[in-house]
Amino acid sequence: MTNRSIIEMVGLVSVIGSLVFVGIEIKQNTAAVRGATQQAVSSQVSEMYRIVSENERMASLFSRALEGDSKSDLSNSDYISFWNFQMMGLRRIENIYLQYKNGLLTEDAFSRIGLGIYRTKLVREIWEERKDDFEKDFVIFFEKLRDGEK
Question: Which of these, 35, 129, 114, 26, lies nearest to 79 by C-alpha position?
Answer without folding.
Answer: 129
